[in-house]
Write a structure and sequence with these properties.
The complex is a heterodimer of chains A (301) and B (528). Chain A is built from 15 helices and no strands. Chain A is mostly helical. The radius of gyration of chain A is 24 Å and the shape is flat. The two termini of chain A are 16 Å apart. The relative contact order of chain A is 0.13. In chain B, strands 11, 12, 13, 16, 17, 18 and 19 form a seven-stranded mixed β-sheet that branches. A four-stranded mixed β-sheet of chain B has the order 1-10-9-8, with no helix packed on it. In chain B, strands 4-5-7-6 form a four-stranded antiparallel β-sheet. In chain B, α11 links the parallel β16 and β17. Chain B is globular. In chain B, 46% of the residues are buried. The chains are: A mainly alpha (301), B alpha+beta (528). Chains A and B meet through α5, α7, α8, α10 and α13 of A and α1, α6 and α12 of B.
């Protein structure tokens, strides 16, 4: 299943860019301010291999991409696409990892507490936070946080890459939407599970309340969270571009935005491919994790 | 099992804490000191090859120098001490300075200069907009410090084109690959007052003063350029004191300018007008083929409202295609005054009629026009929306269409628009390069002018004006060109753009060069 999916993604990445109405050869010339005369376009087509049939080009691109050779960027002949991705991807991974830790930590804590103390003032204020967290666009929240923590309180730098102080604001901004989603998910799942019969049975057995809540209810409430998380991880990485732009974080999202503005096709293609691969592998990881968590799945397969 | 997951989470937190403890707190803590100015740009310096266009111009200006310098007082010597022009205007002889070295120790002499000219000419396709290069017949090093340039025809903007930031600036011949630069360079070595010390892509570039600079050394020792793409973030970073200077037309919005001008510890500055923001009417499309319709629209734009309401007075109302302060452009035109009555009269004259509040109609069709704007430009969108409501009063059904920059430019070049936003090239390219660009497809001008009866004569006059050696003839030709475009109402001038700067008051002497793309760091100093 994995292999045909990867092949499909690579094909889509290649076709999408070929569907853009502008001629890539002409674009490559214009980016560098060369008058796109007919001879210049013909030369460029040859250089880019556009004169060859479609499937030949696709196969060539594919075989090169498996070796991480995506060619040079249109905008800067000194930089290779692979090099640009290698430069910017780690920064995005760092940001997303930090955000993920915040998401998991705080949504577990708040989600479980909300379920245990449901309908108290605490639960209600967290639900208000959840509502706001999903409703506010994160570039705006980012600027507000920046204004408050960097400017008014003078605790953190406004923006830029670098040490952990620079990481806090963008990671928190990025995590907010997801925290809200997961708090709600964990809370509702737990409340649902608590009315199940096995909880009644466990209580009747006289198990300690802690064991019932953490050992059974929470455990059974996390399945859908893990599935959702499998999608959220690549979403975090792909969706980081807004936050990267606001906080001047030197990640792959900014690389992609500038590539789109410049119509730097090789970079866009590579970006789509990398993101597609990421989604597939995260899904795979979730499936494995599920088997690990739920013995029934292991036995049935 | 669950305990395992939870302990995993716990361990993750611990690890992260450890990473935080041992990683550097604030990497940029050392950026700003008594000798260091922190400047900001919206993107990386990119490729600083002086002979190509893919690098940031402020950075190219720091590293590389030209034969001559464009100043308020006119053309002044730079790497050339003096020069002579032959009687017929076709041969320029430059006498070079004898004390100039590239920062790699190479001597700057006639041979090095010629090598640079050869490298640029080798790639002439890329410099189509630059008439000077097309006319260049031969470049020779007469002796060690004399460079002679022969042109096919005389060309009066020659010295200006030599002085603009690119492509005619000098890089050490050692950095060329087989004597050419079109396939990249091996180093970024110029003769300029600063040296590029380091660059972290998308984060920051550091320039240090060239301590062996041949001329007067600038006061600021080190310039750090942070990369911050977002306008609001830049403003907050300036207010917090992380950066010292925001500089450029599109780097700071009008409201923030106003705010900083009034704020303690900060200053704001505006340059003279540098370029014209305008609407370009496509004379080949529908109702716009009629000059009376175009004139009606001219009268229907309230420029002072746009200037005050949208730009807070930072851009002043524009009466003409090019400001009268631009060379050759004070030709005594009469502006189209804002008057909805005159506009309505002209529509009537053109045969467009309306009943009550309906849209204007003629031959069964209503007056529908589309205004194309760059979706990334907030001012353009705001002006478009303003005009849409204003012109609806007159009975014009104005549709507005915002597109992402590249497709917006593609449409411009293809002439696929009724009305589009346009900006003159600005100092020092106005008027010669801006008008020169009307003869071929550079922006939308060429296609939009195809409906003019005198288009052929217009193009011919532009060429003549650019090669004429006779000042009076040149004046007459420019007057003809500007009069024709004004009378035919092809362009609706909106505002004159100005360069903007907001800065921490510890930065002294923030000024503007005639070329809007330069940032005069060499004139600035820092208060200790």
């Amino acid at each position: 299943m994995l292999f045909p999916m990867l092949l499909g993604i690579s094909f889509i990445a290649f076709v999408l860019v070929n569907l853009i109405p502008a001629d890539p050869a002409e674009v490559a010339l214009r980016i560098n301010d060369i008058q796109p005369t007919e001879e210049a376009i013909a030369l460029m087509r040859e250089e880019l291999g556009l004169d060859r049939p479609f499937f030949t080009r696709y196969l060539q691109w594919l075989s090169k991409s498996t070796r991480f050779d995506f060619g040079a960027t249109f905008t800067n002949a000194n930089r290779t696409v692979a090099g640009e991705i290698a430069r910017s991807l780690p920064a995005t991974l760092e940001l997303s990892a930090a955000a993920l830790v915040i998401v998991i930590g705080s949504s577990l804590l708040l989600g479980v507490s909300c379920a245990l103390y449901r309908d108290t003032l605490f639960d209600r204020s967290v639900r208000l936070f959840v509502f706001l967290g999903t409703a506010m666009p994160n570039y705006w929240v980012g600027l507000l946080l920046m204004w408050f923590f960097a400017l008014k309180l003078d605790l953190l730098p406004t923006s830029g890459g670098g040490g952990w102080k620079n990481l806090i604001l963008p990671a928190v901004t990025l995590s907010l939407t997801y925290i809200s989603t997961y708090i709600r998910l964990i809370r509702n799942n737990m409340i649902e599970n608590m009315s199940e019969e096995y909880v009644l049975y466990a209580n009747a057995r006289g198990l300690k309340q802690r064991t019932v809540v953490f050992g059974h209810v929470l455990r059974n409430s996390l399945h859908s969270c893990v599935t959702a998380l499998g999608m959220s991880v690549p979403q975090l990485i792909a969706g980081a571009f807004v936050v990267e732009n606001v906080f001047a974080w030197p990640g792959i999202g900014r690389l992609c935005i500038s590539a789109i503005f410049n119509r730097d096709y090789p970079v866009i293609q590579a970006y789509i491919l990398v993101m597609g691969v990421l989604f597939i592998f995260c899904n795979l990881a979730v499936d494995i994790l599920h088997c690990f968590m739920d013995p029934r799945l292991r036995r049935s397969s | 099992m669950l305990r395992r997951v939870l302990s995993c989470v716990f361990v993750c937190f611990m690890l992260l804490g450890i990473v935080f403890l041992f990683s550097p707190g604030e990497a940029s803590a050392s950026d700003r000191d008594d000798e260091t100015l922190v400047y900001v740009n919206f993107r990386d310096i990119r490729d600083l090859n002086p002979h190509l266009y893919a690098g940031e111009m402020y950075a190219q200006n720091l590293l590389y120098e030209s034969l001559v310098k464009i100043t308020e007082k006119g053309i002044e010597p730079w790497l050339a001490e003096k020069w002579d022009v032959s009687e017929d205007g076709r041969v320029y002889t430059f006498h070079l300075r004898k004390d100039v070295f590239f920062t790699d120790g190479e001597k700057f002499d006639a041979a090095a200069a010629k090598a640079n000219f050869d490298a640029v000419l080798d790639n002439i396709q890329r410099h189509g907009w630059l008439e000077m290069l097309r006319l260049m017949e031969r470049v020779e090093a007469v002796d060690d410090y004399t460079l002679k340039i022969g042109l096919k025809e005389p060309y009066f903007p020659m010295l200006v084109e030599l002085g603009v930031t690119r492509p005619m600036r000098f890089i050490s011949p050692k950095c060329m690959k087989d004597g050419v630069t079109k396939d990249g360079v091996t180093g970024l070595i110029g003769t300029g007052a600063y040296i590029l010390a380091e660059n972290t892509v998308d984060q920051k570039a550091v320039f240090v003063r060239n301590e062996r600079y041949w001329g007067e050394k600038p006061a600021i020792k080190r310039i750090v350029v942070r990369v911050i793409p977002d306008n609001q973030t830049r403003v907050l970073a300036l207010e917090k004191g992380e950066i010292d200077l925001i500089y450029g037309k599109n780097m700071v919005d009008a409201e923030s300018m106003e705010r900083f001008a009034a704020m303690n510890g900060f200053k704001a500055a505006l340059s003279e007008p540098v370029s014209t923001r305008m609407l370009l009417l496509n004379t080949t499309r529908g109702a716009l083929r009629d000059v009376n319709v175009r004139k009606a629209l001219q009268h229907a734009v309230d420029k002072s409202t746009i200037s005050e309401g949208i730009f807070h007075g930072i851009e002043s109302p524009a009466d003409f295609l090019l400001a009268t302060t631009v060379p050759y452009c004070d030709v005594g035109l009469k502006p189209y005054a804002y008057s909805m009555e005159s506009a309505a009269d002209l529509f009537r004259k053109a045969g467009w009629a309306r009943s009550g509040k309906s849209f204007l109609r003629k031959d069964g069709a209503s007056l529908e026009l589309t205004l194309l704007y760059n979706a990334n430009s907030v001012p353009e969108r705001t002006i478009a929306e303003y005009l849409q409501s204003e012109w609806a009063e007159l009975g014009v059904d104005l549709k507005i269409l915002g597109e992402e920059e590249q497709s917006y430019r593609d449409r411009q070049k293809a002439g696929d628009f009724d009305i589009v936003f346009n900006i003159s090239w600005g100092t020092p390219y106005d008027p010669q390069s801006f008008l020169g660009g009307m003869r071929t497809v550079v922006y939308g001008d060429y296609m939009a002018q195809q409906g003019l009866k005198e288009k052929a004569k217009l193009d011919e006059s532009i060429v003549k004006a650019l090669v004429s050696t006779d000042l009076e003839e040149r004046r007459a030709l420019f007057a003809y060109i500007l009069n024709l475009l004004h009378d035919e109402a092809v362009y609706i001038p909106l505002t004159y753009e100005r360069n903007r700067a907001v800065f921490n008051e510890r930065v002294r002497n923030v000024t503007f060069n005639p070329s809007q793309f330069e940032v005069p760091f060499e004139k600035m100093s820092l208060e200790k």
